[in-house]
Amino acid sequence: MSDKLTHSDIEDIMALVESSSFDQLNLEMGDMKLSLRRSGASDAAPIAATVPSPVAAPSPTAVAPTTTPPVSAPSDGATNVNSEMLGTFYHAPKPGEAPFVSVGSTVTSDTVIGIIEVMKLMTSVTAGIDGTVTQIIAPDGELVEHGQVLIRVKQS
After folding, report:
1. Is 127 left (phi over 0), alpha (psi -120 to 50) or beta?
2. Which of 57, 75, 98 is the last residue of a domain?
3. Both ends of the chain: CA-CA distance in Å?
4. Other C-beta atoms lying within 10 Å of the C-beta of residue 128
């Protein structure tokens, strides 16, 4: 790897900082030094950060490949659609927009029922079965754990 950064490398690093929770980044490579700071970041406490190897970073609004969560059938005939990962569950694509599904919505196995955010990466969650949504269990904007029930679907 060269000790010289190109304009493209610097833009990629800036995108990484922008999509992260860091307010400041100091990078030293040989005799080259690069310091980046978000506007409004304070000088009160220095922040130590490790720099990941140069890879394309997803933008904050990137949507990862869709996952099909595991499903289980409770005794009332409805099927639980469970979370496949730990993260923040959102009912809608953006705040203020209509939810992906609501009680009474007809879904197919590939219908997106919500999004789980993990470290600024959004992952679409699909129903995994065909049917009608009978209950939405997971609250919007709340942390869900792996295996936690998100919604219930009565299979058609």
Report:
1. alpha
2. 57
3. 56
4. 21
Q: Which tokens is 106 given?
A: 């007809």
Count of structural domains, the chain: 2
Q: What pLDDT digit, counting tens, does each position of 99-119 carry?
A: 999 999 999 999 999 999 998
- pLDDT average, residue stretch 15-32: 74
> What are the DSSP E strand ranges found in 30-86?
32-37, 63-67, 71-72, 78-82
- Distance in angstroms (rounded) separating the CA atoms of residues 120 and 55: 16
Looking at residue 37, what is its pLDDT? 75
Give residue 68's pLDDT: 47
The verdict on pTM exceeding 0.70 is no
Domain that residue 19 falls in: 1-57
Please tell me whether residues 50 and 71 are part of one structural domain. Answer: no
Given 3-state DSSP classes, what are the helix, strand and coil percentages for the chain, each rounded to the nearest 5? 10, 40, 55
Length of the chain in terms of residues written? 156
Could you tell me which residues come within 8 angstroms of residue 62 by beta carbon, excluding any fewer than 6 positions away? 121, 122
Whether residues 94 and 150 fall in one domain: yes
User: What is d(CA 126, CA 128) in angstroms, rounded to the nearest whole number?
Assistant: 6
